Amino acid sequence: MIHASGDSTSGDHALAAAEAILGHAFASPDLLREALTHRSAAGRAGRRVIASNERLEFVGDRVLGLLIAEWLVERFPHEQEGELGRRLAHLVSQPVLAAIAEAIDLPAALSVAPGEARAGVRRRATVLADAMEAAIGALYLDGGIEAARGFVRRSWESVMVAQAIPPKDAKTELQEWAQKRGLALPSYEVVSRAGPPHAPEFSVRVAVAGSSGAGSAGSKRAAEQLAAIDLLRRLG
Length: 236
Prior knowledge:
disordered N terminus; 3-stranded antiparallel β-sheet; Ribonuclease iii, N-terminal Endonuclease Domain, Chain A; flat; 9 helices; alpha+beta
């Protein structure tokens, strides 16, 4: 963890570990530190102001979209906008970003407040997705588009290769499953909403034909998608 305050030596080691994860030596380490700082850990550390990663997340979201779009056009030269759009939406979705963040061990590098850490914030999909976008934003600002492109292509390779055909939105796929069988449309219900206003956690249940699935995420829409994915798996 990169601490907002405390031992600078351990902070330097944590930054070096994060650089290894991202495959880039930062000319401006403060950019990387900011990218890995959750809003709960932002504030002052002595005379130094520690910014959260929200601004870099804003940049990284745009950079990631551009790099994935560029890659898709290169990889699928005969596909049209609709097919490419579905691929793009999947590849930049919160579940994919969070899964990749977990795979490269990004949670260990995140700086969060002690209370939030005990609450398991580092494992929340929304927090991991935001941190991933912020890291890409920091890479872009520090090393340019090539540094960001190299990281994205390494980290997204397995997900990209697994996309044999353009994916469908999980909610759409579940709806089509029900319609093909003459069943009522899936119904979604918000079971609970937890967490502070700046980091909510929605739990959603979806039901169709006597079966149900569940999902939790930082937004109602993302939680519905995860619930639909869960139910589709149960339905085979």
